[in-house]
Design goal:
Blueprint (H helix, E strand, L loop, with lengths): L2 E5 L3 E3 L2 E2 L2 H9 L4 E5 L13 E4 L11 H16 L6 E5 L1 H10 L4 E16 L6 E12 L9 E6 L7 E4 L3 E4 L7 H10 L1 H6 L4 H11 L7 H11 L9
Parallel strand pairs: 1-4, 1-5, 5-6, 6-11
Antiparallel strand pairs: 2-3, 7-8, 7-9, 9-10, 10-11
Helix pairs in contact: 2-3, 4-6
Length: about 240
């Protein structure tokens, strides 16, 4: 199998869970995919894959929920063997926080206000420039993650210092959602308006950001940030 999507709890909107768009994007790239439910699966028996993708979700990494503790533990095992074991690990939003927590316990902090909408992130190494990305999160990764040998912060924004990071040559985390479209973001904002306001976000500003940055959201963002990086050095293949 090329990619195994490890799906956390919750829905982005309606019946669109956090794994659906990721799996659709991977399949569209001609990759063989599968999925597991992190809240129910025995993670010790995951099938082998070229890349393991941990999705966004609703439960905070800081909870003591049994499935979350198992997810962090298993992500740690995958991260420690990535590269040498010819697999990659990618985390998106909550998934990136799960990886960060596995690397450095206590890495997840709360934001004063939810970060929601289309935003601009800046490449930290000077090579990436700026990128428009969809985002939806109220917790973030502490910049102290860079105290771990091998971790490099790759993307940042004014509200979230760690928008993206890498660990070694085969582990990547993205606090934002490269798999989502502008239409997905509008559906999400409209369907989660009460939660956005509860977490000190502003629905009107979030909607405005989609209109403002819609044209600069690249249609190949997911391919460039996720698929292409995971193909490098681990033998992922197209099947279509």
């Amino acid at each position: 199998m090329d990619a195994l999507v490890c799906v956390s709890d919750g829905f982005i909107y309606d019946d669109v869970d956090y794994g659906l768009r990721i799996q659709q994007r991977l399949t569209a790239e001609g990759l063989e995919t599968g999925r597991v439910d992190l809240t129910k699966s025995n993670l010790d028996t995951l099938p082998p894959a070229r890349v393991y993708v941990f999705t966004g979700g609703e439960t905070s990494v800081n909870t003591e929920t049994a499935w979350m503790r198992r997810a962090v533990e298993h992500a740690g095992r995958l991260v420690r063997t990535a590269g040498a074991a010819t697999h990659s690990v990618v985390g998106i939003c909550l998934g990136s926080q799960i990886i960060a927590e596995a690397l450095r316990p206590g890495s997840i902090t709360s934001l004063p206000a939810m970060d929601i909408g289309l935003i601009r992130v800046m490449g930290r190494d000077g090579a990436h420039g700026q990128e428009t990305v969809p985002t939806f999160h109220y917790q973030a990764i502490s910049p102290h993650i860079e105290s771990i040998d091998g971790v490099r912060v790759t993307w940042s924004s004014p509200t979230t210092p760690v928008e993206g990071f890498s660990y070694g040559s085969a582990v990547y985390g993205f606090q934002f959602h490269p798999e989502l479209t502008s239409d997905d973001m509008l559906e999400l904002i409209n369907g989660r308006a009460d939660e956005i306001e509860f977490r000190n976000g502003t629905v009107a500003d979030a909607r405005h950001s989609v209109g403002r940055y819609r044209d600069s959201l690249s249609s190949d963002l997911f391919r460039r940030l996720v698929v292409d990086r995971c193909r490098v050095g681990n033998g992922m293949r197209r099947v279509g």
